[in-house]
Each structure stands twice: as structure tokens, then as C-alpha cells.
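Propose amino acids for all 372 sites.
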């Protein structure tokens, strides 16, 4: 039984050929991705004094995980295509078939290698990219523009009871905060205000927010200011709601790639509780992609093998053209599926699984056309 899984000379030979070709394709993809804009912008900012030379090299290094997430599946496609195309031209694949090796046995070592890259791709998206993005933000520091945020608390009848407006924030520090307490009395067209707080600064904590240098404006039901008082401090959002709003505010300025899988799942659950439907659907779609995109490494590796199977006199350009077109279509259509999920046109799981299913359909079509 174990003899069926024994690594043979053929497996070592194919793995060596494909691995070197894949690494070469990944390096080429990385260089092409960095060179045009990213490198020039970093050099420009360094010459302008925005970064030190050490920071410039660190910025380029921290960009690598984001690039590798896309480079792994692309590298496997091009690496397997190049290797199997060469084997076809040298008639080696014909020899393998002549001695009784099936297509499944021929690509078995490639599938095993692609599973390794699948794990690497998953770890890259789950751990490395969020870590790199966090460190990039630390390097860029205060060069970020002011970020505003607004949160509205509602009761069980979905009526607003409080609105909090933060003019700008960074981490747990806030500036220029306005808190609007709505009156329980509902008019025909508006909700009246009965208290307004304006604070110069504030600090977020896990179970409360604390405002400093606060001015309180108390308003009557007729819209007339009853009193104006000053307070050194004021606590708001007491309890678990404080940590929820902390997450909503912090992640409102983050892209999906900056969040780990576990935190992304918590954020999705929070978005659902807050009835933020569009953001919920979009992030849920991205969460499913976290698990399905790495699996594309296996599918593209198999597709590369199929495209590499060619007749000795068949043009090599055809397979590479199809491969480049496949990569282009895959990455250019991802934002379209993201939009369909965000707007609720399709369920996020459907939008996330459609591209891999399309690849599986293409693999089946190529397999039939090659008559293997």
C-alpha cells in the first residue's frame, strides 16, 4: 500500500524542473510588479526627504507579502506550463505516456507541490500581509490625512438615540469629538436633540470612551439652549458597545488585506449585528476568498500542465497566450464579483467560489481537447 506513495526518480525529476521554473516565474512577477510604480514612488519620496534610505528599503521589503499572494498561483501556472511545454518539445512526455503513465500519475508530483504553495499562500494572506501592512503604517506614521468617523446608536425599534462624530483619530486617540443625544420625543420629520457634547480630545478604552475638555449644551424640546456647562472629563459608550465601536472605527479605514482571518471573522459578525449590509456582504465575500484563492494554486498548476501538453510542432505561443489571458481575466473580474457581493446581487459565497469553478470548467475543457 505504501509503495504506491513512494517518491520515484520521475517525481524528483519533475519536482526539480517545476520548482525552479516556478521560483523563476515568481521572481519575474515580483520584479515586474515592483519596478514600474512602487519603486519609482519610493525613490521619489526618499529624495524628497519623506523616508530615510533604511525606511525605503524596508518599505519595498514590506510590499513583498502583498505581491507574493498573487505571485504564488501565477508562478505555478507559468512554471508548470514552461516545464511541460519543454518536456513536450523534447518528446519526454511522449515517452512517459508510452511506458504506461497516466495523466494523473504524470501530474501527481505537481499537485503535491501546488498544495505546498497553497499553504504558503494561505499563510501569506492570513498572517504576513496584515503584519506587513501594520508595519508600513507605522513607518508612514503621521503622514496619513485626518480620518473622520461617525457612529449612530439605535434602539430596538431602529430609532437613533445617539450619534458620535470623530473629526480625526489615530489608534486610541481622538480629536474634536461631537456627541449628539437624541430626544425620546419623535417629531413628524426629525428627531429632536436634547443634549450636545463637544470635546477637544478623547481616548478609547475596551469598556468605555473618555472625553476631555468637554462643553455640554442642554436643549429644550423647543430647540432652545437651556444651559451650557463645562466638564473636564466625560465617559460615554460604557460596556461592550465601546469595544464594538472601537473595532468599527479602527477597521473603517482598513482594507480587507490588513486584517487577519480571526479578526476578519469577528468584524463580519459585528457588521451583521449592526445591520451594515453592504460592508457585511463585501467582507464576507473577502473572507470566503481567503480560503478559496489559495486553492487556485492547485487549479492553475493543473492548467499549466494541460497547456504544456502539445505536439512537437505546435506553436509554444498558444499555451502562453492562454495562460496570460487566464491570469488577466481572473484578476480583472475579482472586483466585479466583489461589487456583486457588496450590492447583494449574489450571495458572497457564490461570488467567491465562481472564479475557482470557472477554472475547474476550463481545466475539464482543456483535458477533453487534449484527448488525454
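Proposal:
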Amino acid at each position: 500500500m505504501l509503495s504506491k506513495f513512494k517518491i520515484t526518480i520521475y517525481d524528483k525529476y519533475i519536482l526539480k524542473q517545476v520548482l525552479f521554473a516556478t521560483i523563476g516565474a515568481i521572481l519575474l512577477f515580483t520584479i515586474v510588479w515592483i519596478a514600474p510604480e512602487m519603486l519609482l514612488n519610493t525613490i521619489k519620496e526618499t529624495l524628497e526627504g519623506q523616508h530615510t534610505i533604511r525606511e525605503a528599503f524596508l518599505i519595498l521589503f514590506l510590499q513583498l507579502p502583498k505581491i507574493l499572494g498573487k505571485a504564488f498561483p501565477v508562478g505555478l501556472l507559468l512554471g508548470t506550463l514552461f516545464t511541460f511545454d519543454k518536456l513536450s518539445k523534447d518528446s519526454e512526455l511522449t515517452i512517459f505516456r508510452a511506458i504506461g503513465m497516466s495523466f494523473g500519475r504524470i501530474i501527481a508530483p505537481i499537485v503535491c507541490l501546488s498544495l505546498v504553495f497553497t499553504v504558503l499562500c494561505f499563510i501569506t494572506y492570513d498572517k504576513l500581509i496584515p503584519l506587513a501592512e501594520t508595519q508600513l503604517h507605522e513607518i508612514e506614521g503621521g503622514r496619513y490625512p485626518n480620518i473622520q468617523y461617525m457612529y449612530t446608536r439605535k434602539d430596538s425599534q431602529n430609532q437613533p438615540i445617539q450619534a458620535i462624530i470623530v473629526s480625526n483619530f489615530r489608534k486610541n486617540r481622538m480629536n474634536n469629538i461631537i456627541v449628539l443625544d437624541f430626544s425620546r420625543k419623535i417629531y413628524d420629520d426629525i428627531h429632536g436633540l436634547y443634549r450636545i457634547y463637544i470635546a477637544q480630545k478623547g481616548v478609547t478604552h475596551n469598556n468605555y470612551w473618555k472625553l476631555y475638555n468637554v462643553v455640554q449644551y442642554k436643549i429644550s424640546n423647543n430647540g432652545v439652549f437651556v444651559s451650557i456647562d463645562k466638564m473636564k472629563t466625560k465617559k460615554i459608550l460604557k460596556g461592550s458597545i465601546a469595544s464594538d465601536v472601537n473595532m468599527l472605527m479602527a477597521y473603517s479605514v482598513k482594507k480587507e488585506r490588513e486584517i487577519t482571518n480571526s479578526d476578519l471573522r469577528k468584524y463580519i459578525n459585528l457588521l451583521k449585528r449592526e445591520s451594515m449590509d453592504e460592508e457585511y456582504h463585501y467582507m464576507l465575500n473577502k473572507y470566503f476568498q481567503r480560503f478559496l484563492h489559495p486553492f487556485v494554486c492547485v487549479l492553475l498548476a493543473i492548467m499549466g500542465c494541460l497547456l504544456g501538453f502539445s505536439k512537437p510542432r505546435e506553436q509554444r505561443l498558444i499555451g502562453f497566450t492562454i495562460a496570460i489571458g487566464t491570469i488577466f481575466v481572473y484578476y480583472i473580474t475579482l472586483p466585479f464579483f466583489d461589487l456583486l457581493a457588496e450590492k447583494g446581487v449574489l450571495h458572497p459565497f457564490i461570488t467567491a467560489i465562481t472564479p475557482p469553478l470557472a477554472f475547474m470548467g476550463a481545466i475539464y475543457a482543456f483535458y477533453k481537447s487534449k484527448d488525454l
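The first helix runs from residue 9 to 47. The two ends are 26 Å apart (CA to CA).
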